[in-house]
Amino acid sequence: MQKWLCVILCILGMHEGTIAQMQLGPIGTWRAHFANDSIQQIIKGDHLYIAAANQVIQINANQEINYLNTTTGLHAIGVHKIAWAPITAQLVIAYKNSRIDIVQDDQVTLIDDLSVSNLFSDKTINDLIVINNYAYLSCNFGIVVIDLLKKEIKETIYPNNNRQIIRVFQTVNFQNKLFALTENGVWSSILGQGANWIQENTNGINGIQNMFLFKDQLYFNNQQHLYAYSSNIPTYQINAGSIQTITTDGAQIYAGIAYGNKGAVLQLNSNKVNTILVDTNVLSRPVGILKDGNTIWVADNNKGLYQNNEQSKWVSLGGPLTQGSGKIAIANQQLLMSYGVNKIGMSSLNENGWSNINQIQNLNLTNIEALAIDPMDQSWWMGMGAQLVQYNPNQKSVTVSLPHPNVGAIQSIQQNTDGSMTLLKEGVGLVVKEGTQWNSFPIPAGFLTTNLKQMIVGSNGLSWIIGPFQQGILLFQKQNNQARWRQLNTGKGSGNLPSMEVTSIAQDKDGTIWVGTDNGIALYQCGDINEACDAFLPIVEGNGFNGYLFQKETIYCISVDGANQKWIGTNNGAWLISKDGTEVLQHFTTENSPLPNNKIRAIGIEPSEGDVFFFTGNEMISYKGQATEGSTAQSKIKIYPNPVAPAYNGPIIIKNLVNNALVKITNLNGQLMAQTRALGGQAIWNGRDQNQHKVASGMYLIFVRDEAGNEKAVGKIMITAGY
To answer: Which of 274, 418, 532, 710 is most buried, with most CB under 10 Å away?
Structure first.
């Protein structure tokens, strides 16, 4: 199987994470926002190649970088080993799921024979090397040889003469012999003649974990000692720590050493007095080293990529701080991402790219469990334990408050345009700011107050709290200065929930409350808390559904786009459904999209551009959606591309529209060519007339108006020859 590799070229910012920006590309395209804090290998081919947890990063001589991942043609996440084939100019990638990708120019070829095979119970790939035109994979059952010219598996070798499964950790080519480090010692065979193997005498060396070549000699090493082949006297050694990786440049040996949770890079000397090149104040767990000219590149499994030379520094590779997501908040051209309890820092994505922030104005950021962006001034609100932190990025100011009661971690924050604010606090309930006064409304006795995670305040002032541990929904409303509480459950007349295990909640643009459970979705249109309110359970027919919407599915998240359509996150990928929930519009999984995982834990939508961010079980990825937020007043129309180039065959975007505007395209004589309806604030035209024929070259007029005909605008677009 082959894919064409579409690589996104970016400039490598060495200090600030400015790789990926908020405006993410044409409609229907994908962009990975993978974390690059865990680097496990670095090699030199035609460029530098860095193996991160879920993608490969390429750095050229001008320090420009490309990302190779599922959005650019790769077939898996969980990168395990990489190798460069100099003869064929190929990058070979081995994944944790036993898939293999061969990257050559702009083409990616998948070899998945091993991953789908039922011959072996454990198909783990431990190591990967290239010898001539063959790739050798050291696996937990033997050695797999791949023909890089034919791009297929050539054979499987068992280095033990009895063709029995054997765990192989590593192979090296020495003096035209293939040496294999196995669970039963070191074996060797003449290269290309894998039928006859000899078990090597390792002279009683204990705990061999690696083999390497240095000055035309084969070496073995364990955690602290290096031995020349056929010798049991260590030539090199360390006196503390454990060796994680070894590399050479022909003149010297370099070792990555771990000392507990700290690390260092040493130059190993034969007089046993080693030279410290990068000390433990810098590194954590160095697992890969590359000496390239005067630069030593270090792959640190905990901290990223380090460049050691005259200007030593950690290299910014873009992306968020780390994998996973605590909470997210999105406003116009701004995304915030936290990492939850016992985690340090947060991440920001805006027009300048990614920034990873551990401190703001001398305030250490930690334990952020709630995030929000103020609709009035775009300031950031963060819940750090019981503290409420406001940061105004325009004024560079920080305010820290401790809303009464000063106990209970803040789990959710919601502001309103009238300046009021509602907090959900662990162990307490709701805390509401009205004017300058904070008022506490504890959850009544009989209901659990631990493991509170999410709440929303509806447009009618009714507060909805996801009850923990199968407690359904808790409703709150303040009436005549009195707190009113009510529970919604599965009973008729008392909520009609499809399950008591509520997992997500959202309010759409019509004021309807969408509730996700572990058994599908329920819709509520409740008014006064004193009135009975049962859920409506939508029914979908077709597209694989013949029953209640997402019945027997766990709904992790619900997000509403600019056209009031709903994005739904499940264990079975991401779904886009119509605004009333009766039609499935799109369904993305790992099989038909670059999604790194089918478990969608959270979805955020950037309103002005329509980018949809999926937070999966592994990484974050975004999709350029069709809907944006519409406005109440029509401003100047934005049309792109304009003019339309002759070879362009993509969609024509008409933006900055009044909400759900009617859009008509005519020629200069007033003849109607096409008509469409905006999805929120954006309409899409395919450049064809009402009979789906390409329109002729020339100038066309675009007329826009709202439903009532009060808000209007006119734009022009030039179609050049060939479209």
So the answer is: 274
Q: Regarding the domain delimited by 205-319, which CATH topology (the fold level of the hierarchy) does it fall under?
A: Neuraminidase (2.120.10)
Angle at 170 between CA 213 and CA 189, to 5 degrees: 80
Which regions of the chain are under pLDDT 70?
Answer: 1-24, 325, 542-546, 721-723
Tell me whether residue 240 is exposed, middle or buried, using C-beta atoms within 10 angstroms of its C-beta: 0 to 12, 13 to 18, 19 or more.
Answer: exposed
CATH 2.40.10 in the chain, residue ranges = 322-414
Which structure tokens are listed for 387? 């503290």
The burial class, CB within 10 Å (0-12 / 13-18 / 19+), for 599 is middle
Annotate 640-671 with b (16+ C-beta within 10 A) or e (fewer).
eeebbeeeeeebbbbbbbbbbbbbebebeeee
- pLDDT, position 544: 59
Q: Quick one: 86 exposed, middle or buried, by C-beta within 10 A (0-12, 13-18, 19+)? A: exposed
Query: How far apart are alpha carbons 428 and 523 in whole angstroms?
Result: 27
Amino acid at 716: K
Strands (E), 164-221: 168-174, 177-182, 185-190, 198-199, 210-214, 217-221
| C-beta atoms surrounding 471 within 10 Å | 20
pTM above 0.85, yes or no: yes
User: Residue 598 in contact with residue 588, Cβ under 8 Å?
Assistant: no
Determine the Cα–Cα distance for residues 286 and 268; give it in Å rounded to an integer.
15
Predicted pLDDT of residue 443: 96
Q: Is 62 helix (H, G, I), strand (E, B) or coil?
A: coil
Sheet holding 198-199, edge to edge: 168-174, 177-182, 185-190, 198-199
CA-to-CA distance for 511 and 513, rounded, in angstroms?
6
Beta strand extents in 480-543 (DSSP E only): 482-488, 502-507, 513-517, 520-524, 539-542
Return the bridge partners of 370, or none.
383
pLDDT reported for residue 102: 98
The yes/no answer on whether domain 638-719 falls in CATH 3.40.190.10 is no
Q: Which residues of 382-400 are buried (b: 16+ CB within 10 A; e: fewer)?
A: bbbbbbbbbbeeeeeebee
Under DSSP, the state recorded for 642 is S
Q: Is the dihedral of CA 175, 181, 182, 183 positive or negative?
A: positive
In this prediction, residue 416 carries a pLDDT of 81
Please tell me the total number of residues recorded for the chain in this structure.
723
Instruction: With residue 354 as reference, give the H or E element that holds it.
Output: strand 353-357
HSE of 401 in the Cβ direction (CA atoms, 13 Å)? Answer: 13
Asked if residue 498 has a cis previous peptide bond (ω within 30° of 0), the answer is: no
CATH 2.120.10.30 location in the chain: 205-319
Q: Judge contact between 686 and 654, C-beta under 8 A.
A: no
Question: Distance of CA 414 to CAs 81, 318, 375, 432, 433, Å?
Answer: 45, 30, 10, 10, 10
Determine the 3-state secondary structure of 188 from DSSP: strand
Q: Are 682 and 709 in contact (CB under 8 A)?
A: no
pLDDT at 722: 58
Assess contact for 663 and 677: CB atoms under 8 A: yes
Whole-Å CA distances, 285 to 289, 448, 557: 11, 42, 36
CATH level 3 topology of 322-414: Thrombin, subunit H (2.40.10)
pLDDT score at 693: 92
CA dist., res. 703 & res. 685, Å (int): 13
